[in-house]
């Protein structure tokens, strides 16, 4: 049993309150997942150059100043490079090629895990109760257009920050999952034959990398999800995000819970309604339980409410 949460702010002037609204959702779902937790927040900042690399220092006391200094030494004068440290987590923003940064981290900074890459995403993952993690990284101060989060009760792989959700693949894409896939090993082997590398034995990583592979092959996220119905066996509620949208789907049996609340100000998703009960205006919201195999996709737009797309397969 795990908990999922998602929040997309429709009214731009409310995006400063994204973290403040989301923390009670994550805390509430700690009852469903007390082992570890994670949060991916998307914030499209105009005029910011380079990719953001979310980092986690897993061994010893972090020395983020040394990381930043060594990056500048290794890559030379390539433009503005910054590092925003937040305890064991940091966001390195660099104009360097993503593959070069990944290789540099692997070669020189074994004590640092790369959590995500993208223009808009920042990702946090750690062990412990979600309430403690939210306080540790000051989630209430986070701003942005949307986020997805997860509280984990481990059932099929170890408890560690690497095995916590959200999982990411490619750039500006993440996935959280409540459920259990029954064929992750066959999916993993199929993707590995195509040169795709895995970092854990977690079943969710197989689903995440499958969807990202389909998108690299030309599918939209919604089309990739459609194809996954025939490829991914098991029970699941998937909540996903890119820089432009938040997407929710349940499997054909829909045995893993999800509830959605929509207003003119936001779209909120959680495993249980009690995680949404504190949200402003929720009493007047359109609240519903998504049907099996219906893909709900909410877009981030600067003006007006985003449109909900439901694709039935």
Write up what this structure looks like.
This protein is of the alpha+beta class. It has two domains: 3-44 and 124-312, Aminohydrolase, N-terminal nucleophile (Ntn) domain (Glutamine Phosphoribosylpyrophosphate, subunit 1, domain 1, 4-Layer Sandwich); 50-119, Alpha-Beta Plaits. Helices cover 24% and strands 33% of the residues. The chain has seven helices and 17 strands. The protein has helices spanning 18-28, 64-75, 98-108, 130-136, 184-192, 203-216, 221-231, and strands at 3-9, 36-42, 51-57, 82-86, 89-94, 112-118, 121-127, 146-152, 167-168, 173-181, 234-242, 245-250, 259-262, 266-270, 286-288, 294-299, 308-312. The strands form three sheets. It has a seven-stranded antiparallel β-sheet with strand order 7-2-8-1-14-13-15, with helices on one face. Strands 9-10-11-12-16-17 form a six-stranded antiparallel β-sheet, with helices on one face. Strands 4-5-3-6 form a four-stranded antiparallel β-sheet, covered by helices on one side. Helix 6 crosses helix 7 (221-231). The radius of gyration is 18 Å and the shape is globular. The mean pLDDT is 93.
